[in-house]
Amino acid sequence: MTSPSSAAGRLLVVATPIGNLEDLSPRALATFREANLVYCEDTRRTGNLFARHGLTTPRVSCHEHNEFRRIPEMLERLAAGETLALVSDAGTPGVSDPGRLLAAAAAEAGFRVEPVAGPSAVAALLSISGFPGVPYSFLGFPPSRRGERARWYARFASRDETRVLFESPFRVVESLEELARAWGDPRVCLGRELTKLHEEVLRGSASAVAGLLSRRPGVKGEIAIAAAPAGTTSAPVTSSRNGSAEPDGPEDPVEDPVPDVPDGPEPPSRE
Fold it and tell me: Of the four listed, 7, 27, 127, 269, which is most buried by Cβ atoms within 10 Å?
């Protein structure tokens, strides 16, 4: 490990909105204005955020395919005293998103690595789930292949705590069905498009929520799922949009009475 001089730079790991661009904190704005350069998972996504807030700081890409190659350049810049910012498409870098390698390399080299805290899909979902928040496990995304996904769910089946995961809208029904089989059909809280215009929250047993979603022509948007610990009392499915909730029977859930509205382009990934 090296010992940088007092003039050495800093790497600031910045959380950005998970959907609503107005959730960017004043400290994050100040960080972007101060930084010499911003490492972005996708410069176009971050460009939309910068345009919204009138930011002009230079940006370069840093994603899962080139993050390791960015390390030497980053260390040179830090050694020269620059202030660097690191962002993912949404939420907090390094949490189911790129960023871990840069943060680890900067810290190992003796540079300051500072968090600029902000929006988190995991924390947002836990806060509304009604499930115990201590302890809990964040599991990231299940594997996309069925066999691997079944083994993945089986590996976490014995955990007697709230479990939070992300899932693709294209696999969410099959994934919930697998979750129900492996974890004893626990009560879940599913958040879709959290903090965005078409935010939706579904509550009920995993199998019932899967049944509700399977009856729709399609599912869009970012999805986060919290599963309650064993022994948590189940209840009928409820589907809530814009603060309204409609109860659905656990055996035969009905469609949300609010008409589906196109959700626009796929949102950025999330933590």
Answer: 269
Helix residue spans in 54-145 (DSSP H):
67-79, 100-108, 121-129
For residues 182 and 179, what is the distance between their CA atoms, to the nearest angstrom? 5
Each residue's pLDDT, cut to its tens digit, for the chain (271 residues) gives 555 544 589 999 999 999 998 999 999 999 999 999 999 999 999 999 999 999 999 999 999 899 999 999 999 999 999 999 999 999 999 888 888 999 999 999 999 999 999 999 999 999 999 999 999 999 999 999 999 999 999 999 999 999 999 999 999 999 999 999 999 999 999 999 999 999 999 999 999 999 999 999 999 999 999 999 986 655 566 777 754 333 333 333 333 333 333 344 444 444 4
Identify the residue whose tokens are 């840093």: 62
What angle (nearest 5°) sits at the alpha carbon of residue 100, between those of residues 61 and 266? 55
CA–CA dist 209, 239 (Å, integer): 9
**CA distance readout (Å), 252 to 213, 215, 227:** 12, 11, 21
Which pTM was predicted? 0.81
What is the CATH architecture assignment of 10-116? 3-Layer(aba) Sandwich (3.40)
- CATH superfamily assigned to domain 121-248: Tetrapyrrole methylase, C-terminal domain (3.30.950.10)
Burial class (CB in 10 A: 0-12, 13-18, 19+), 244: exposed
* CA–CA gap between residue 65 and residue 169 (Å, rounded): 23
